[in-house]
Specification:
The protein is 90% helix and 0% strand. The protein is mainly alpha-helical. The chain has a single domain, classed as F1F0 ATP synthase subunit C (F1FO ATP Synthase, Up-down Bundle), CATH 1.20.20.10. The longest helix is centred in the middle third of the chain and has 40 residues. The chain is elongated.
Length: 107
């Protein structure tokens, strides 16, 4: 199950990469034709990043809460590590948002 999910994510990232490379390689004559690829790449980038970020944050919070419930004395250390991890996960989603905005500005 896990390898199938990873395979699907790799496929989507590869397709996004192809669409982005087409979009940035377009000249002025083909720019109008590439707009659909730019929009698709921007949508896929933010959609997949949000999906992956949401799943990752859910797993991180689940692990943190299980650790706190098993050992309540370790709550401050677990909480700080969990917040740092959530911030790192969210930063990847923000990077995808910035890339999507840059692609949208190319339209």
């Amino acid at each position: 199950m896990r390898s199938k999910t990873v395979g699907i994510l790799v496929l989507f990232f590869a397709l996004s990469w192809v669409f982005v490379s087409f979009a940035f390689a377009a000249d002025d004559a083909a720019a109008s034709e590439m707009k659909k690829y730019i929009a698709l790449a921007a949508g896929l980038a933010i959609g997949i990043a949000a999906l992956g970020g949401g799943i990752g944050q859910g797993i991180a919070i689940n692990g943190g809460l299980q650790g706190i419930s098993r050992n309540p004395e370790a709550q401050p250390k677990i909480f700080v590590a969990m917040i740092v991890g959530l911030a790192l996960i969210e930063s990847l989603v923000i990077y995808a948002l910035v890339i999507s905005i840059l692609l949208y500005a190319k339209l």
